[in-house]
From TrEMBL:
Matching SUPFAM superfamilies: EF-hand, WD40 repeat-like
Protein name as catalogued: Cilia- and flagella-associated protein 251
Biased amino acid composition, Basic and acidic residues: 16-29, 38-79, 95-107, 200-225
Keywords in alphabetical order: Cell projection, Cilium, Flagellum, Repeat, WD repeat
Amino acid composition bias (Polar residues), ranges on this chain: 130-155, 180-190
Acidic residues bias: start-end ranges: 80-94, 165-174
Amino acid sequence: MRRQSWAQSEEAGEETLQRRMSDAEEAPRESTGQNGETEMKEEGEPNPNHKEVENPQEELKDDTLAWRESQEEERKKGEEEGEEEEEEEGEEDKEIAMEETQEKAGEAQEEEASGIQKETTVEPQEMKKSMTSLETQITDSQSITSGIFPTTQRGSELKPSLQSEDSEADEFLDLDQISPEEQQISSPERQPSGELEEDTNQRPQDELGRERRELEPEKKEEGQERSVSSTQSIAGISRDSLVSTTTEDVLFQKDKSAPVYPLTLTWSFGWNSSLPVYYVREEKQRVLLYVCAHTVIIYNVFRNHQYHLQNYLTFNPTNSKELVSNSKTQAIYYAWYEERDTLAHSAPLLTEKTFNKLVGKFSQSIFHLNLTQILSATMEGKLVVWDIHRPPSSASTFLGFPYIKPCKLVHLQKESITVLTTIDSYIVTGDIKGNIKFYDHTLSIVNWYSHLQLSAIRTLSFSKTPATPPTEKSNYPPDCTLKGDLFVIRNFIIGTSDATVYHLTTDGTKLEKLFVEPKDAICAISCHPYQPLIAIGSICGMIKVWNYEKKRYLFSRVFEKGLGVQSLTYNPEGALLGAGFTEGTVCILDAMSLENESPEPFRYSRTSVTHISFSHDSQYMATADISFTVAVYMVAVRNGRRVWEYLARLRSHRKSIRSLLFGVYLDSNEPRLLSLGTDRLLIEYDLLRSYKDHLEVLDIHRTDQGCYPTCMVWYPPLTRELFLLICNSGYKVKLFNATTKMCRKTLMGPAYGSPIEQAQVLPARSMAELPKRYLVFINRDKVGLQILPVDGNPHKTTAIVCHPNGVAGMALSYDGRYAFTAGGHDRSVVQWKINLSVLEAAVSLGGEDLTPFYGLLSGGRKGKFYRVTIPRELEDYFYYSQLRSQGIDTMETRKVSEHICLSELPFVMRAIGFYPSEEKIEDIFNEIKFGEYVDTGKLIDKINLPDFLRVYLNHRPPFGNTLSGIHKSFEVLGYTNSKGEKAIRREDFLKLLVTKGEHMTEEEMLDCFASLFGLNPEGWKSEPATSSVKGSEICLEEELPDEITAEIFATEILGLTISEDSGQDGQ
């Protein structure tokens, strides 16, 4: 019941917030028309008495001087306010005392006007800390909003287990709302099925919270009980209520507890303008609530602080058991009957025949002020009025459930209504032309704002503080009634379609711009090489630069229409910023002013530029576009000035380019350029031999046979050999010799639902960390960490959901402390604090030697492979291989060893169910033979059982033999038979075996079929001394069916036991 009341109360609070936002257009009066439609007559012009105030902090700073002055002011302010933290110079470290909070809050507006804001951040608290009181006591519609920030008397101390803030980064606590997938941030043992086991410390937040509430007092941990008791005694409150006495700054206090996760969300840049912004608190603190990716942001405007929540719902504020929502075509009313355990709903279909009028697509629905009706706004400027029929609750028939019925169609205005909400005694609309209108309960116009010059209204949210009563100094506008009374309304927040958020002070009609964010997808981010700056580029053509330590916006530039920013990269010196655009333009910008470094942008590409890379000496810049073309630009001296010039371009790939990378030759300081595509080609270019309009290719190498590569990075110098690290779609990580391009190692990569899409080596924080390096990666929807060197140990990786709808890009801070992920269409960039010690602790708990790898076996340590195959069958295979290599018929003394010859390794692997191709066998041989060559100069020609097990686990398919892979091959090679299945004719099948891929000779093919059909019981040519049936004696026409499907090939011909589901989500 406690859990249920918490959910219902939270949903009720959400409905309160949603009902305080809306959209509408011109002002009209109503007159009743035919068929129940009410026509609204247009009113006169509104009172234009208003003025617009720009927030100085949000002004664009287009020159370097302005930015440096801002930095200097911040430095001076930091010295006056308190001690600076050792790890981050220039940032506050002192916690703001509760007594000082209310006194200094009034000064926040002055600080904002001068461009100086206090900067503190939030550290995540341990998820096991007790949240029972907070979770169970939110009981009314205002609890989720104003209840979080009630003012208390000064002097009362409180050390809540809520999220707080310190000077390093704003981090979050999820308030028992984190979904199970979001908790995949430990280092789970990966199972062959592809499912990840979660550590008990990483279970879903709501599950942990429910267990804590249900535990008997004596079963609770002593530390938790002591923490809750001390907190409540200090605050002077009962065990049942934490919200009622929470201070206004409780979410923004500093937390010095140790981090518990390797990656912690600290800040979210951006706002999805398709979603609402809520006005949570005014008074001395202007606090907003909005959504960024899958996280709810509570943002203190004056203090520039963030607090993060996850999962949010809204219910009827007067009845937590009622909810209204709508799609584009239907309004849906829900009612929860607790005693019947039933969620009743009513969604009547509304057509043009209902009112004999065009209704239009629904935009938003709310409860009427009279609570007996529902209002639904449409994109035709109309309002549908629904009557709520609530039969007596005692009725047990179907008719006993409530339902809604359309009763009237009101034509309010010509323009589309985009927002509909209520406040006090008014119904408020916002429309596509930026007008905001207020109606009374009869839908008669009272007042409107039409001269604010706004774009389409997306959200309206009113202050929780009632409007100040008018005085002689007040400047409220008159309403449009005959009496002409002053129109006194609360201050409110306006969010528009161009991703701008405003604050309107109604007394004097003062419009203040709070922030402007990109209004389209964010795909490009790049961090400065030696300053705490991040550049964020959007498809809308905006580039914004932030100081990610201060969480302060610095300057921006908006390019002309049609130039959407697709890629961004700083050069190694940090003086230039390369920008690639969606229509093929390439610009080289000054990093501190965003002005063009070259007189004219480069327009040599015809399609979107996806990659930009600079050489180590900044003499070359290379780009790649979606037309599979690589272009190179270089610095030349003209008239004594260094200028960038176009060199050459080449369509070198057949499929999309995944990575574009500069490096340095080992025997010189000359740059080298490589590109990697999904066509499985790794191409190196000869820059020295290239000239105008001719890009010379030095080397082409194929990296994979079946899977395709996804990304490429330079492997850090952890060994004497220089490697390229390449990830592929088969969840593998491969190391290639940087000179010979030989595949030197294949290892199991992170398997978190989809393959790695981008990876970067984390910069070392100090010289002491150089021997220990880390890899940061993103896949379809997660960001993760990998401890280097890569060896296949599953405990050395961790990942957490960052953007559920997909990650578009990644960047790392110059000091290796933060990772940034761009969410693409969710229009957000998330900053993650990296806590390496937490991941190291997880690795130490995972065991040593082969212990971490046992979890990768089928069934883990409890499975048949571990209990039977390894101690019995695999050892027998090793002994049998030694007999084979020494000769079955020899009479000499046998030499028993712990090793087998490399030539026997493929046979043992096939015996335990892994069937590598000839190319993969060659890669395995090279991996083992040259494993110690750089250090010792000797080749290895044998392998023992532990090393064999590592090689097997790293090379085998991550999810075992699956039918889906065979189906894909038959879809490409086969035809659709009469049963609708993909099949290959027998003669075509045999022809493919001897002509395509790693083709066989006809003799080899016949001998293989002899073994598969049981005519060679000892296996194909495995025992030279054993008599076997000659392949020529087999009649394949009798043994093989006329047409072969994937199922027949896998089960009847190969005799494999194959699972239907691959488990490779996203591959």
